[in-house]
Design a protein that fits this description.
Layout: H1 14-28, E1 33-36, E2 42-45, H2 47-53, H3 57-60, H4 78-83, H5 90-93, E3 96-99, E4 107-113, E5 122-132, E6 138-147, H6 149-163, H7 173-190, E7 194-201, H8 204-211, H9 213-230, E8 237-242, E9 245-251, H10 255-270, E10 286-293, H11 301-317, E11 323-328, E12 335-337
Parallel strand pairs: 10-11
Antiparallel strand pairs: 1-2, 1-6, 3-4, 4-5, 5-6, 7-9, 7-10, 8-9, 11-12
Bound molecules: 3'-deoxy-guanosine-5'-triphosphate and magnesium ion (2 copies).
3'-deoxy-guanosine-5'-triphosphate (GH3) binds near residues 167, 208, 220, 243 and 316.
Length: about 350
């Protein structure tokens, strides 16, 4: 016997070890584990798997009902994909996944699972490993699971914090830069327009000077919420660009619609009727500059920001509380204003 071979418990012969002790060992593993045969029937379902899923081994062994431990609707588990050679479907069925070009390695994936019997949604890390006989034929697949819910929730919360502006809770500048870059590439690839609005609060220094910085902060929060509430599509992003300036990314919005959207935002802020003290300056208002880029192989996202900024500058100089938009990378630039 080699030095690292498993030592037999006293009183057991080798056959009992193979058929009894090995099974008992898998049954007592703290890692939730189940095994499917080549008909996708459950051969083995250990105690940790019973605990994780709330499904008793006696209810699932010999059946194809293993999916019931994890999901409400029938669907393949990772081990089914390996048994049936349906590896190309992994991306459609799992939240995260990696596949190896070596079929002996199996699959790794992560997913949000409903866990119908325990009533708690869990984020599971899943390995499905093929088992081959001595002739090299696939005879079964073993699936092991790890509960990663706490780690995933912490990761998502951190990601959210890292992409949110601390004061107003809209997207922060970093998130704006990333999204604009992504949408720019999409625009070039899909030949769809991309629009951007830059929104600057009018005479905000006066608001701060009179009400104080804290009241100014409250005002910025209200403005951010008001603008976010105006956006109708999940793909639109309101971000705090910096200070009292906001930016709105509008994927797939053509130039013809941009002025209307800018005016809707401007009017929503004006109708809040947030008063400046002594009413010297009337209500809190914003000026808006916008630009639309048409698909082109040239250019970069900074051009869109620069053009929207230039339009904002014009809106300020034209008297504030107004919107001016520009069409970019067209044969001739068109401008419209209100
Ligand atoms: P306009 O844009 O109409 O030309 O005038 P403005 O007074 O808004 O422009 P300016 O750039 O002179 O002032 C911007 C002000 O915004 C000054 C700054 O104190 C204020 N501000 C920037 N960030 C914050 C913030 O986070 N909280 C508060 N309360 N004020 C801020
Ligand atoms: Mg301002
Ligand atoms: Mg400003």
């Amino acid at each position: 016997m080699k030095d690292n071979a498993m030592q037999l418990p006293k009183g057991l012969n080798p056959n009992e070890v193979e058929h009894g002790f090995a099974l008992s060992l898998m049954d007592h593993l703290v890692v939730p584990t189940f095994v499917l045969d080549m008909q996708c029937r459950v051969l083995f379902w250990n105690r940790a798997c019973e605990h994780l899923t709330g499904v008793a081994a006696a209810d699932v062994i010999g059946t194809m009902n293993h999916w019931r431990g994890f999901y409400c609707e029938p669907r393949p588990c990772l081990a089914d994909l390996v048994v049936q050679g349906r590896i190309s479907e992994t991306h459609a069925l799992y939240y995260e996944y990696t596949t190896s070009s070596d079929p002996h390695y199996g699959l790794y994936a992560e997913n949000w699972c409903v866990m119908p019997n325990v009533g708690t949604r869990l984020y599971l890390a899943i390995n499905a490993g093929p088992i081959y006989n001595q002739a090299g034929e696939l005879i079964a697949v073993v699936e092991t699971l790890r509960d990663m819910t706490l780690q995933k929730e912490a990761q998502l919360a951190l990601q959210k914090l890292a992409s949110q502006d601390g004061l107003t809770s809209v997207a922060n500048r970093r998130s704006f830069d990333d999204t604009l870059e992504t949408e720019w590439r999409r625009t070039m690839r899909d030949s769809q327009p991309l629009s951007l609005l830059m929104v600057d609060v009018d005479r905000f220094k006066n608001y701060n000077d009179t009400y104080g910085h804290q009241a100014g902060d409250e005002c910025l929060k209200i403005l951010a919420k008001t603008m976010s509430d105006q956006m109708q599509r999940a793909s639109d992003m309101v971000a705090r660009y910096g200070g009292e300036e906001f930016a709105v990314i509008l994927p797939n919005i053509p130039f013809s619609e941009l002025l209307g959207i800018a005016e809707r935002l401007r009017a929503a802020v004006e109708s809040l009727s947030l008063l400046f003290p002594e009413s010297t300056f009337g209500h809190v208002t914003v000026s808006i500059g916008g630009a639309t880029v048409l698909p082109s192989s040239k250019g970069e996202p900074g051009e869109l920001v620069a053009n929207a900024d230039a339009a904002l500058y014009k809106a300020k100089h034209a008297g504030r509380n107004r919107s001016i938009v520009t069409e970019l990378i067209a044969p001739e630039k068109k401008s419209s204003s209100v």
